[in-house]
Amino acid sequence: MFDHNMLLDILRQILEASKRVSKRFETVDSVDFFTNSERGLEKLDAICMLLIAIGESLKKIDKITDSTLLKAYPQVDWKGANPHFS
Questions:
Q1: CB 56 within 8 A of CB 81
Q2: Whole-model pTM?
């Protein structure tokens, strides 16, 4: 059996990171925003880091649940969310 409190903490982290990603995109009106300024590149870097953190958190969930929780939701493209899943 796995630690439910740890799982909840990880899920909260994913939720918060997802909210920050969404907030970072609020001012983005086109792809050019990211490439036309240093500010845009910095925002892109921040978004990418948050997405990496979400992917790492998904790997943690898979590990602490012995690969049972994510498999219970086969309709979700977990490999798309983190290509390092087997």
A1: no
A2: 0.85
